[in-house]
Structure formats: structure tokens, C-alpha cells
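Service request form, structural biology core

Requester: graduate student, group of Dr. S.
Request type: structure prediction, single chain
Budget code: on file
Notes: please return the result as C-alpha cells.

Sequence provided:
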Amino acid sequence: MMKQELRALAADLAAHLKTVDEDTIPSPQVTLSGGLPPKADKPESPPVPVKKTMTAPGAIAEAMAALSDEVSACRKCPLGHARIKAVFGVGSLKAEVVFIGEGPGYAEDHRGEPFVGRSGKLLDKILETVLGLSRGQVYIANIVKCHPMKDPEHPESMGNDRPPAPEEISACRPYLEKQLTLIKPRCVVTLGSVAAKLILGETRGISLLRGKWYDYPNGLFGSHALKVLPTYHPAALLRNPNLKRDTWEDMKMLKAFLERPVES
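Core staff response, request fulfilled:
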């Protein structure tokens, strides 16, 4: 009888440990450097997934935690002085896809986590419905890690959002690229025009950029190109439900890519 109880306890413990993701950390934030990147390559046919180089999970988590601390202490631009909380990023450090938005808003500034308002709830629904993934299975970050505000003197005010300025983006870009280097995702999905233009060095709007695969311009992984898929920001879908069909098609493209075998 004792042996049966011990076996049952061991099985319960194993099941619990299997559900624990030691490579998932709470929200920190991301940044961009050196102005705008070079113009993106022309869109191409669906990319061939590239095999990721494996690094010790503990070392990645440690490096990401150190980067998060660096972002929390960052005062490289005025955003760092006005924010309530830095918004580093959230999700799995083993993620195959990283979603990148423009910057934190009111809700994110107060919570310290990206995409937690109405847009975030819609993004979660898209992930679950189309991709069959939870927020914890992907990684979510923003171009800038602090809330860009029209009136920095009143961070407690709602409706105080604005797009990030070029100097704010330049100060933040290195953080974002370090995050991508640590995670080594198979692809990136940019959410909205601002993120797509900045990542790809493009001037065209999201309606012209979406629906195609691009190469990440900076060659973070040497000869292995990081693929980029632009799509609409969830906030745009809330304002204009007619955009949902195009977004659905983009997510189907992403799903097909993630389901393809990784090239060895």
C-alpha cells in the first residue's frame, strides 16, 4: 500500500514539474539603437524555418534578468524619468515567435507588462484561437520600454499616449535586439505601422507591408535570417473590425510557418 502511495505522489510531482516553465519571466522591457535600420529586403516566398542554436536555459534566464534590471534603471531618454513602471517584455524564453508592438500605454505603464488592456485581451484571443498558443508560449515586447506621454507631468492621466520619438527609439533599440539575440526566435511579428516601419526601415504603411515575409535587416544571427511578418495592431482591429479578416490571414501564414519542420 505504501509503495502505491509513493508511486502516486511521484507521478503527481512529475506532472507538476512538467507544467512549470523555468524560462518564463515576468514583464521587463526592450529597446532600439542607432536610428532607423537599413531598408528591408523585398518580401519573399514563405521562409524555410532555421534550426535554433541551443544555449543553457539557466544562462539565458540569467542574462535576460540582468537585461531587465538594466532597463529598469535606464535613464537614457526622458521616458525613463516620467514612467511609472518599465515594460520590458513577457513570455517564454524558448518562444519561436516574438510579437513586437510600438510602446506601453496607460495600463501597461501601471502594470509593468505589455499588452494588458483591451488590445492585449484581443491579442491573447488571437493567439489562442488561430495559433493554439497562450501568452506564456510566445514572447511579447515593445519598440520602447517606457510609456511615451503627451504630458509627462501627469502619468496618472488616461488618454495621454503618443508615438515614440526617434531619439527614444534609438535609446531603446539595443535592448530589443539583445532580447532577440537571447531568445533566438524563428520569426518576429510586428504589430502596427510604427513597429513595422522601424524594424524594417520602411516608409510604407502597414496595409502595404502586411501579408508578406521579410528578412530582419540587421542580420542578428549571421547567415540565418530572422523572418519578420508585419500585421495590424490589435488596437486597429478594435477601431475597425473590417481589418480582422486580413489579420486572420496573416496569423494563418504564421501558423503554417511554425508548423513546418525546422531545417537541421
